[in-house]
């Protein structure tokens, strides 16, 4: 059931390709307007490309000459809203797909009951959609999508319309359901990508800007969007020396290359820049990535002695309570850097919007790699 799509739509500035291996789940991430819904509409047959081609399990869905209509594609699209038929009860909603593809009433009902069992919703069988909670309706919608036995399942932010309280149970359910299926998932949550997707594709302005295995990509993002999703600070610049980056407006940033990071965590690496360039060459585009928890905040008069290597003058933009931490957003010229402090530290610093500070990040906590 492998799937491959490549398509361009001039009017939307869309020109991207997506490949999903048999049994694989791919998460599609990207800012608003990046083209995620466009990609789904193309795959589902709701939109025509100017040029391109899509193949599912060896069948051409569209190309220069061919066009398979939506209902005959073997593609199921699960929208953010469950979109159940309001006049049919739950079991008939789920039986709709099998009926439409020719199953007898009895066989379709048996299939519907089986799929309702799969999503722990058997007890809802006789209810009308209006009598379901958001989470229940979404479970039924998943059963309905699966009952059509699609070869490709498309899930458009399946948790977006749900209470945070019910999302975890549904996430676990989808993890089970997606395990052996060929599926594509649009999400804005790193957790969804980690839990549900083998691979991640990042779209920006209609183009794929990076892709890779989920854990690897979110740990070492190469796009600002993926870094934001992974909750990491992200600086772009050009390499100057091993583990050293020049960032416009910020100056030199000192870090370590990824291979050194693990050693640094074990306390074996003292200074950055001592090893030969691994893969990246001077002047190449590169990025520096570090965690908000690894950024310390000081008043300018209180910067520790011994001149830390990464010390950036900045101005506080915003303080945001975040669980047991306070997240500090600070502007260092053209870049916003975030730091996580304890409430006690934030109170002691007496920070507020407009406060002048110095942000310090140890080189050993900053990973530098080519973009
Ligand atoms: N019906 C439409 N007609 C013309 N252009 C459209 C239409 N829908 C979307 N676009 C444009 O296509 C581009 C991609 O939009 P798309 O909705 O696919 O992005 P998205 O990543 O799904 O965004 P979001 O996260 O906001 O849903 C945008 O420039 C958008 O303005």
Q: What does this molecule look like?
A:
The chain is of the alpha+beta class and 371 residues long. It has two domains: 3-224, P-loop containing nucleotide triphosphate hydrolases (Rossmann fold, 3-Layer(aba) Sandwich), CATH 3.40.50; 232-370, OB fold (Dihydrolipoamide Acetyltransferase, E2P) (Beta Barrel), CATH 2.40.50. The protein has ten helices and 20 strands. Mean pLDDT is 89; it is low at 266-278. The structure holds adenosine-5'-triphosphate (ATP). Adenosine-5'-triphosphate binds at residues 11-12, 30, 32-38.
Number of helices: 10
Largest beta sheet: what is the strand line-up? 6-7-8-3-9-10
Give the uncertain stretches in residue-range form.
266-278
Q: How many strand units?
A: 20
* Fraction of helical residues: 25-40%
Q: What coarse outline follows from CA principal-axis ratios?
A: elongated
Small molecules (ligands, ions, cofactors) in the structure:
adenosine-5'-triphosphate
Overall CATH architecture of the largest domain: 3-Layer(aba) Sandwich
CATH homology superfamily of the largest domain: P-loop containing nucleotide triphosphate hydrolases
- CATH topology name of the largest domain, in short, is Rossmann fold
Largest sheet: 6 strands, mixed
CATH class of the largest domain: Alpha Beta
What is Rg? 25 Å
Order of helices and strands: EEEHEEEHHHEHEHEEHHEEEHEEEEEHEE
**Which class do the helix and strand fractions yield?**
alpha+beta
Mean pLDDT: 89
The percent range for strand residues is: 25-35%
Distance between the termini: 33 Å
Q: Work out the count of structural domains.
A: 2
